[in-house]
Structures are given as structure tokens and as C-alpha cells.
Specification:
It is a single chain. By secondary structure, the protein is mainly α. It has one domain. Helix content is 77%, strand content 0%. The chain is built from eight helices and no strands. The protein is elongated and about 50 Å long.
């Protein structure tokens, strides 16, 4: 069983086709530069987001010392939010550039599922990690690392499956 949208959600095909026909999708496909620039911004946003999340996770795991988890959370929050927003916007632009490619790709559905889980986790359970007991904070950090890196791995796999 393949985990693509085509196999798992065949009824979603009209949505993917509509995305391909949008003016933004057509603009993204019209030349090499829109896609290249968007992908570059996407990767920079990924570095900002993951770097910020990793710093906090390393603090929760006890690898980094100095600032308290609460101080670090307050300081890094704008970078996490900025990186996440930039990734969602640029990811959407990359998606509409070739939605039918993503419709049949076996790595795209897992990426979207991991992304949904990571965002939900980050803004619910993980928010309490900075003030939780050490063992809970460490578990929260490990789950966070696994979720965010799973998104990256699935995203990278898109090019190869």
C-alpha cells in the first residue's frame, strides 16, 4: 500500500488539479527563477525554524546551559513563528508549482501528516515543556526533534520517490 494522496485520498484529485490551474501555480511554472528563489527561501526558513527549535530542545535535554527554558522560549519564539510562517507560505508556493507531482508522490502525504502533527504538538503539548518537570521536558524535546526531522526527511524524500 502506497501512502500517496492518489492512493489514500483519490477524491482529492480535483483539488490538486485546481491548484495546478491557479495563476500562482502557472506563475511558478512559467520560469526557473520563481521556483528556485522560493525553494531557497523555504530552505533558509527551515534552517531558522529547526535551529530555533533545536536550541530549545537542547536546553530541555540539558545539553545547553545558561538561559532558562522559559527565557529561551521567549527569545526564540519570533524566530520559530517567522520560520514556520515563511515555510508554510513558500511550501504552499512550491506545492502549487507541481501539485500533480505531489498527488502521486509517496513521500508527500507523510510530510503533510508529520507537519500537521508537529504544528499541533508544538502549539499544544510542547508549549508546557519549558515549565514541566525535567523528565517531561526531556520527553517533549525528543518528540519535538523526531517530528521536525521527520518532516525534513519526508520532504527530502519527495525528490527520490
Amino acid at each position: 500500500m502506497t501512502p500517496s494522496f492518489a492512493h489514500s485520498f483519490p477524491g482529492s484529485k480535483p483539488f490538486f488539479e485546481w491548484c495546478a490551474s491557479t495563476s500562482i501555480g502557472e506563475f511558478m511554472r512559467a520560469d526557473t527563477w520563481p521556483f528556485a528563489i522560493t525553494e531557497t527561501v523555504h530552505l533558509v526558513a527551515l534552517a531558522v525554524l529547526l535551529g530555533s527549535v533545536l536550541l530549545l530542545n537542547f536546553r530541555l535535554l540539558g545539553i545547553l546551559r545558561g538561559w532558562t527554558p522559559v527565557q529561551l522560549t521567549r527569545t526564540l519564539s519570533p524566530f520559530v513563528m517567522g520560520g514556520l510562517i515563511a515555510m508554510l507560505v513558500t511550501g504552499t508556493l512550491l506545492f502549487v508549482s507541481e501539485p500533480m507531482k505531489y498527488y502521486i508522490n509517496d513521500a508527500f502525504l507523510p510530510k503533510i501528516l508529520f507537519l500537521s502533527m508537529a504544528i499541533l504538538y508544538h502549539f499544544t503539548v510542547y508549549r508546557k515543556a519549558a515549565t514541566a518537570p525535567a523528565v517531561v521536558s526531556k520527553m517533549a524535546a525528543l518528540v519535538s526533534i523526531v517530528l521536525w526531522f521527520s518532516i525534513g526527511a519526508a520532504g527530502r524524500a519527495i525528490a527520490f520517490v
